[in-house]
Amino acid sequence: MTTRESVTILFTDLVASTAVFSGLSADEASGLRSIHFDGLGQAVTLAGGQVVKNLGDGVMAVFTTLSAAVDARSPTGGAQRRGHAWAKLRRNYSGPPAHQR
After folding, report:
1. How confident is the model at residue 62 (pLDDT cuts 50, 70, 90)?
2. Which residues contact 34 (CB under 8 A, 6 or more apart)?
3. 3-state DSSP assignment of residue 64
4. Which residues are CB-neighbours of 49 under 8 A, at least 6 positions away?
5. pLDDT reading at 76 higher than 80
6. What kind and span of H or E run contains 15?
7. What are the extents of the domains in the chain?
8. CB distance 64 to 7 below 8 Å
């Protein structure tokens, strides 16, 4: 007998990433992507999820519950966890504004 389980899939996107990264050297862009993905990975993992795939400037993550996915993305949950990575990103970058969605 096959059992089925529901999961919640979360996709993230860094808005205006093309504008952000186009004015940087390859090393600078790579460093900022690393900071960005570290923060996302921490938020997902701490909320009980798993990053399945990096998607250029975002991730696809899976969670066993909807509430865990919402927590990873919420201002009170995931944003605080991502805060250190985003603060570091902002310290190292002064180009066009970008934000996550």
Report:
1. very high
2. none
3. coil
4. 10, 61, 62, 63, 68, 69, 72
5. no
6. strand 14-15
7. 8-92
8. yes
Token pair belonging to 12? 């993230």
Q: Name the CATH topology of 8-92.
A: Alpha-Beta Plaits (3.30.70)
Which amino acid is located at 28 in the chain? E
With cut-offs at 50, 70 and 90, classify the pLDDT of residue 52.
very high
Distance CA(40)–CA(11), nearest Å, equals 11
pTM recorded for the entire structure: 0.69
Alpha-carbon span 32 to 39, nearest angstrom: 11
> How far apart, in whole angstroms, are the C-alpha atoms of residue 34 and residue 18?
16
Three-state DSSP class for 36?
helix
Tokens of 51: 């990053």
